[in-house]
Design goal:
The complex is a heterodimer of chains A (508) and B (324). Chain A has 508 residues and is α/β, with parallel strands linked by helices. Chain A contains 18 helices and 13 strands. Chain A is 44% helix and 12% strand. Chain A has a 5-stranded mixed beta sheet. A 4-stranded mixed beta sheet of chain A has the order 6-9-5-10. Chain A is globular. With 324 residues, chain B is mainly α. In chain B, helix 13 runs antiparallel to helix 17. The chains are: A alpha/beta (508), B mainly alpha (324).
Chain lengths: 508, 324
């Protein structure tokens, strides 16, 4: 009799566990608070009911509840959240195989039939919309980004100290790096080197290697030959030439020795501390470096220390790596939004995020609180004296900017007084000639099922081989052997898949 | 067990209760020792809720689990994921790496605490011995993230203290963090630094219960230090060693995820990739929950087989030994 009691106890515990797993997914109804999940790039997430959030609710007429997740773990959290109970109404998604397999399995609403109904969403740029699509179908509202975002950041004061001009060709670039290493640009006698490259996971995701590859005319992930075959970038001769160049940089001590393990969080350190002189990354890092160096010297403008260039030319090309015009989407999961009525409500909210007023709110802050038009009609930011408050404010604005899509193409007002650095940046970002030098990826819209299944491991094969080659651990033949291994592990299937998709979608 | 008559301070003598248990029934036995059983409750709850209750989720290893279809909506695919795993080009490499690290951990990592305990046991000055005991026990509580950060900071080629020291001693650059040949030694040394203290404490406790008279008798008989060690000390902790060995066998394929994940980079991935990191990459990184569960299940099954076999072998050698 007594063992029966303990058996009953044990069974009821297990049933409890069962029940916990079987709780039904809350689906949201029309009129509910709109739940959003978004990444936060900095250290601090906006507090509950921050002033920007309240203004947002006031302008759009909807109550929102935003969950901010740190960007470094955002990819992992995506898959867990989608598998869990508390799926939000809107998900800021930055791509990756979780998203593509979710799309394939119907986890997100297809929006093609609904876009035209909305004032701002219908103004989407058709080219970017195509790039952001999944094999031609729209499953989310893309977040518009400048097309030309890459740049070379150089210590301007080092160039001046050594009497050098900004490099135009790759040879001048190498000369400059050698000078940075040998000629004591700081005047302090400390050891210095040329360029800083951090540990970068994955391939074709806008990293410094991809940006440098573009100078050598390497295709942006894929290119199509005359016969209509898809050729991946690492199968080209230009790719090997770029890698030989990087290998030379490493061997000559012109690149940091720990490039295989340096965390991206520490990328700025050597540049700001005066141990290295060059970083290749997005233009926004240039602003970051300028701010850091400016506050280190107690001034406002960091231009004396940071210069921005677009690219350097090589014998192969005069080119620059563009973005696809977008970075991620705002997507609507089918698990949380189950009725069409609710979908239209959520889409209306997203549409309103694209209106001029809300677009400015998300990116700049509250008008007349964080920024205003002064008497002359010029835009200016309002600074807070309290440092902590100022920091919280700029963190808030950076976080809410993650929700900004800007599909209707409204430009943001900005300060007219440009620093030298800002002028260089705008020349690269908006310059017509840079758009022409950009190498675009012709298969940006295509998603291969094989890649969704095996993408990460396949990408790692090439990413690892690249690092191993540059650091001298493997030679050219072994690298090519790794590329063969990529092909055998599924790479050939990916090529086949993409070729078929390309022919279906683009060659009718 | 009947031979022991340890007096329980909380509820009567154990000897009586063990003999009487059959007569007084289970619940009376529990009530008499209720405080002892109450102490067990948190542990039991923990295992029941976090280990046993979720076990039914293993079913997704046999499905093509899609999160938004849920467990009852995803289709059953039988052994597809297991086939995919065993035929994948990664499998042999993962198996090789995991086995290599497992064997190294069991041989070196297991022997080290015993040696340490034996050495500490010989110490005369008690306060010195206690200080060392505490000092080697502390790393056990330090999280792997901190250990990895410490290792990186000390060994980085960008000015790490140990890196420079090694460079001066051996007159060349030794890239411990990125050299595939040095990866396994680094992991084993890290593991020893962190977890030897724990095993040492257990062995020291076992050694403390050795009868002093036996030592005195051996000295009279003319046994030197090593003979005493071999004939008295080691046999007395034999059962402890066997139990810990069996437990270690079970976690043979569970090379610590935290440690390996943090120390892996592009240059040592060929030797660093183990099952745990693979499961993380495909399960959480790529959202392929079914595949990851299948691999995890495979690992658990191998672990169970190893424990049961080790236990059987132990029992054959000595019927008193073994866990079950």
């Amino acid at each position: 009799m007594n063992w029966k009691k303990s058996l009953a106890l044990g069974l009821s515990l297990m049933v409890l566990g069962l029940l916990a797993g079987c709780s039904s997914n809350g689906d949201s109804e029309v009129g509910d608070v709109i739940t959003i999940m978004a990444p936060v790039l900095g250290d601090e997430a906006p507090e509950e009911n921050s002033d920007i959030q309240q203004k947002l609710e006031e302008l759009t007429g909807y109550q929102v509840d935003i969950t901010w997740i740190p960007n470094s773990s955002y990819g992992d959290r995506l898959s867990i959240v989608l598998a869990g109970d508390e799926v939000p109404d809107i998900l800021v998604a930055s791509g990756g195989s979780t998203i593509t397999s979710g799309v394939a399995n119907g986890a997100f609403w297809q929006l093609d039939d609904y876009i035209e109904q909305f004032a701002y969403l219908s103004q989407m740029d058709p080219n970017i919309r195509l790039n952001a699509s999944f094999n031609g179908e729209t499953y989310g509202v893309y977040r518009s980004r400048d097309v030309i975002r890459s740049a070379i950041m150089i210590r301007r004061d080092w160039l001046e100290n050594l009497g050098l001009e900004a490099p135009n060709t790759i040879d001048e670039f190498t000369e400059m790096l050698l000078a940075f290493r040998d000629q004591d640009p700081n005047g302090t006698g400390e050891e210095t080197y040329g360029i800083i490259i951090p540990k970068w996971d994955g391939i074709n995701n806008g990293g410094p290697f991809d940006m440098i590859n573009a100078w050598f005319g390497v295709p942006n992930r894929t290119t199509i030959d005359e016969a209509g075959n898809i050729i991946f970038d690492f199968l080209t001769d230009e790719y090997l030439a770029a890698m030989e160049y990087l290998k030379m940089l490493f061997e000559e001590g012109l690149m940091n020795r720990d490039f295989a393990i340096l965390p991206t969080d520490d990328w700025n350190n050597d540049f700001v501390n005066g141990r290295a002189g060059v970083i290749v990354d997005t233009q926004s890092r240039g602003n970051e470096l300028a701010n850091l160096l400016a506050s280190a010297h107690g001034v406002e403008d960091g231009s004396p220390w940071v210069m921005m260039l677009g690219n350097v030319t090589t014998e192969f090309a005069d080119a620059i790596l563009p973005t696809d015009g977008f970075n991620g989407h705002l997507m609507i999961p089918t698990q949380s939004v189950q009725s069409e009525a609710r979908l239209l409500e959520v889409l209306d909210f997203i549409d309103q995020l694209n209106s001029e007023a809300v677009h400015q709110l998300l990116n700049l802050g509250i008008k007349d609180v964080h920024w205003r038009y002064n008497e002359a009609g010029d835009f200016e930011t309002i600074d807070y004296e309290d440092e902590a408050l100022a920091r919280q404010n700029s963190a808030n604005r950076a976080s809410f900017a993650q929700l900004s899509m800007g599909v209707a193409g409204f430009t943001l007002p900005s300060t007219l007084t440009e620093t030298q650095l800002e002028a260089e940046r705008i020349a690269i970002r908006d310059g017509e000639e840079w758009l022409e030098k950009a190498i675009f990826n012709p298969t940006a819209a295509l998603i291969s099922d094989v890649e969704t299944l095996r993408g990460a491991t396949l990408g790692n094969i090439i990413a690892d081989a690249r690092v191993q080659f540059i650091s001298g651990q493997i030679n050219r033949d072994e690298f090519l052997a790794e590329v063969e291994r990529w092909k055998d592990s599924g790479g050939n299937d990916v090529i086949e898949d993409l070729t078929r998709l390309y022919q279906v979608n683009f060659m009718e | 067990m009947e031979a022991n008559s340890v007096t329980s301070k909380l509820g009567g003598t154990r000897e009586n209760e063990i003999i009487d248990k059959k007569r007084i029934g289970l619940w009376k036995h529990v009530r008499l020792n209720k405080w002892l059983y109450l102490m067990l409750v948190p542990g039991i709850l923990y295992f029941a809720i976090f280990r046993y209750a979720p076990m039914w989720g293993i079913v997704i290893a046999f499905q093509n689990y899609v999160p938004h279809l849920g467990m009852f909506g995803s289709e059953m695919v039988g052994f597809m994921w297991f086939k995919e795993f065993f035929t994948s080009p990664d499998f042999m490499r993962l198996l090789h790496n995991t086995l290599a690290l497992g064997v190294l951990n069991i041989t070196i990592g297991f022997v080290f605490p015993i040696i340490l305990a034996l050495l500490l046991n010989e110490m005369r000055i008690q306060i010195y011995k206690r200080c060392i005991q505490t000092a080697i026990y502390v790393p056990h509580f330090v999280s792997w993230t901190i250990v990895a950060s410490l290792t990186t900071v000390l060994l980085t080629s960008n000015g790490g203290f140990l890196f420079e020291l090694l460079q001066r001693i051996f007159d060349r650059e030794i890239h411990v963090l990125t050299d595939p040949n040095l990866f396994r030694p680094m992991i084993v040394i890290q593991g020893i630094w962190k977890s030897s203290g724990f095993g040492t404490i257990i062995y020291l406790a076992a050694l403390a219960s050795v009868d002093v008279e036996q030592y005195e008798a051996a000295i009279i008989d003319g046994a030197n230090r090593f003979k005493r060690l071999w004939h008295i000390t080691l046999p007395s902790i034999q059962s402890t060693i066997v139990i810990l060995l069996i437990l270690n066998c079970g976690s043979f394929l569970t090379t610590g995820f935290d440690q390996i994940f943090l120390m892996t980079n592009s240059l040592n991935r060929t030797v660093a990739d183990v099952f745990d990191v693979f499961v993380y990459n495909i399960g959480i990184g790529q959202g392929m929950f079914s595949y990851a569960t299948a691999v995890g299940l495979f690992r658990s099954v191998v672990g169970i087989i190893l424990i049961v076999s080790a236990n059987l072998v132990a029992k054959k050698a000595d019927p008193e030994a073994g866990i079950f």
